[in-house]
Amino acid sequence: VRTSMSFPDQLLKLAVEVAEEAARLIVERRRGQITVADTKSTITDVVTAVDRESEELIRARVLAARPDDSFLGEEGDDVNGTSGVRWVVDPIDGTVNYLYDLPTYAVSIAVEVDGETVAGVVVDAPKGEVFTATKGGGAFVDGKPIRVSGETELAKALVGTGFGYDPARRQVQAEVVQQLITKVRDIRRIGVGAIDLCYVACGRLDVVYERGLNPWDYGAGALIAAEAGAAVGGLNGAPVSPEMSIAATPALFDPFHDLIAAANPLRA
Ligand code: IPD
Ligand code: CA
Ligand code: CA
Ligand code: CA
């Protein structure tokens, strides 16, 4: 079949198909009983059978279509392929919301070529919203272009964040929030790292930051935010990494960065 689609667009098309199928699966399973199958790093770090089922589905679909690709999923699948393409997958982002039937959780799929993320999709499963981006191709929700807010003042910024599962780190994260809370409009803890980034992309939040996100949490969302015009990075000029991810309107990135850097967020 002749196609005029670029390679990132072809990868995105498959990513969207598979993410939407996984999103339908997890919403359908939510109609039954959801229980904790296991705890991981700590008692607060839970996994359900549906996290695993969703990842299995995504891995099977992706590798059936592209058998030579690599695949990294949160729930343990790490397949090393030969094509230079790697799929980085969170099968349910927001497992605690999912467990409690809070209606925000997502499927997140990033696709890397030679280590660079070129396509990403985040599907808000209960809402059916689909955020997408390709490198250099802009960001979209349900096919419509999105843009960050124009906010320039920290005092008017709505800021999203999240907390990891390690108690010592949580303590520090709480202390950082204590520093911020009087300096910004308000803080949101939505519970879904990928959605936080997409919300900056479409102007529903002005800034998000979190210590301890993993590549499957930020892979797709960081591309979507950047393509929507956000400034995206870590501390002191570093790129986004598990150490720190910040996405903000261009005017807010530096002042916000300096505010949290001063709170010494890497103490634990
Ligand atoms: C978690 C969510 C949460 C963030 C945590 C993540 P999971 O992912 O993204 O918002 O604060 O750091 O681990 O475990 O629900 O996929
Ligand atoms: Ca998890
Ligand atoms: Ca996650
Ligand atoms: Ca997850």
Could you give a short description of this structure?
By secondary structure, the protein is α+β, with helices and mostly antiparallel strands.
What is the terminal-to-terminal distance?
A: 54 Å
CATH class of the largest domain: Alpha Beta
Radius of gyration: 18 Å
Compute the number of strand runs. Answer: 15
Report the average pLDDT across residues: 96
Q: Provide the list of bound ligands, each named once.
A: D-MYO-inositol-1-phosphate, calcium ion
| Integer tally of domains | 2
Low-confidence runs of at least 5 consecutive residues: none
User: CATH homologous superfamily name of the largest domain?
Assistant: Fructose-1,6-Bisphosphatase, subunit A, domain 1
Question: Please, could you describe this protein's structure?
Answer:
It is a single chain. It is built from seven helices and 15 strands. A hairpin with a 2-residue loop joins strand 9 and strand 10. The strands form three sheets. Strands 4-3-5-6-7-8-9-10 form an eight-stranded mixed sheet, sandwiched between helices. A five-stranded mixed sheet has the order 12-11-13-15-14, with helices on both faces. It has 268 residues and is an alpha+beta fold. The radius of gyration is 18 Å and the shape is globular. It binds D-MYO-inositol-1-phosphate (IPD) and calcium ion (3 copies). One calcium ion (CA) binds next to loops.
